Amino acid sequence: MPPREKGEPFDHWAKIVRSMNTRTCQYSDTGIMHGNLSQRSAQRPLDINTPGDAMFQTWAGNIADEPVGGGASYEVQHSDTNSTYWYTEMDADWNIPCVAGQQVAGDSTAWVGLGGTAQADELGQAGSESDFGWDAAGDPVTAYYVWYEWVGPFGTINANRLNWNVGCGSAFHIWVKIYGGNCYVIQNLSNSGQYFSMCSGPTYDNHTAEAIIERPSRFAGMHTALDNFGWITFKGVGITENSKAYQGLPNLWHDYSTMVQNGQVLASVAPIVWDANDYPNDDFNINWVAGGTACNPCA
What we know:
Layout: H1 10-18, E1 28-29, E2 53-56, E3 59-64, H2 74-77, E4 87-95, E5 106-115, E6 123-134, E7 140-151, E8 157-161, E9 171-177, E10 183-188, E11 194-198, E12 209-214, E13 225-226, E14 231-241, E15 246-248, E16 254-261, E17 264-269, E18 273-274, E19 282-288
Parallel strand pairs: 2-16, 5-13
Antiparallel strand pairs: 1-8, 3-12, 3-16, 4-9, 4-14, 5-6, 5-12, 6-7, 7-8, 9-10, 10-11, 14-15, 14-19, 16-17, 17-19, 18-19
């Protein structure tokens, strides 16, 4: 059973313990890069007092991003020294989306994380991946993974894929936190509570918290097309701000982004809704619209 960390909200700890039966700590290195928000921080919206729609070519989702001194958001200011807000944890539950056939090969990653909004900021993230392509005989092939990684200043990558047998529809609770160490916690809710934690990673920035769908970068920074994941529901999206109470996105300053390429919407973000069954009781969907094309750079 995982210990309750110092400062960890009881409701969050209890949420993990209730569905856990076994603990495993298997992982392996992988060269896949899931991206760093720093690469597009200059495009962040200025007005985020209420959720405002921004557009990016490689990701869609919600970001908690408190303003600096009541002014523009942290992503715009890029000033750690003046910020009075920070986030010590971010977690959510979701099912790995099932990918369907399309005209081009593509991938998608779903993740939660802390940091990564300015070029020199560290990003800690963990999530799942769904891939679609064809084999040598021309038959469709899908693959599903869970992973965690640290992205350092200016794109330094330390990525790891868990050696777990997961598939379309597998359910996970994924948690990135700073207190008690820089930690990644991944719990397989579909396989007897299979549980992984790693708390020795490098420090990452704590001025933003994200729940994201992204089309990952591959060789030489090339971002893939977005595979047809249909939709994903991030459930029980929880954040601890300024070491205060663990709470949901609707209680925090946040905004969202739609994924758009050359005027074509690739993925859209639905409104946050109440969910009485998954504490802290907030859900939101990200919906696939189109696959787009591979790009580098995706500006």
